[in-house]
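Below is the record:
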Amino acid sequence: MRVTIEPSIMYFGTPVVLINTLNEDGSTNIAPISSVWWLGWSCMIGLDGTSKSTENLKKYGRCVLNLASGNLADKVNNLALLTGSKDIPVHKKLLGYKYARNKFSDAGFTPQQAGDMKISFIQECQIQLDASVEKVTSFAENDKRLAIPAYAMELKITQVSVSPDILLKGEENKIDPNKWNPLIMNFRKFYSLSSELNESRLAKKSEDLYAPWKRKGISRILTDKVLSRSNKKYGH
């Protein structure tokens, strides 16, 4: 038997991502987010419309997504209730947020530069994704349960950088999920993954089947034609 409830939040369990954006003075802002999902080399993130991250993404259109692992829970927790905005909105004041100029120092993270990106990434995170903003959409405008402005932002991943020690043995482009243990936010509490439960039926097929763009020559041409014809049925 089930009962009808009305929870205040809907954080059923998503990975914690530390989103780094460029401030107007050239410094890097860090913000933990847990509203994110992935499809191909694109992802959708949900952001508070009043946040410094939202402001920076709208202005500059670039970011670094640092994927936190379970061992970084304490450092991520240090970022809680900090904002990069000097003008703190009412709802964040009620929650106890304070302005922080240097979140790297406050959290205990180490900044590092990534290629030509002006945005610093977080050295302690084993996975970094360079990303650009593809689309910004107002979110839940007609949802009275959401008391603040919110945005859904589509990001395109332009580069993936990882620590070599989390790769599958003998593979150059595959992450071993048993070596990398993501930090999970579940109803405002931190969790990490347990060991693998059982063999996934999806994992029996090669991961490369999800990446037809990696094919070369005639195989790539034929694959593109077949997919293009198939996708037209679905208006894509």
Notes: The chain is about 20% helix and 35% strand. The CA atoms of residues 225 and 231 lie 10 Å apart. The mean pLDDT is 88. The first helix runs from residue 52 to 60.
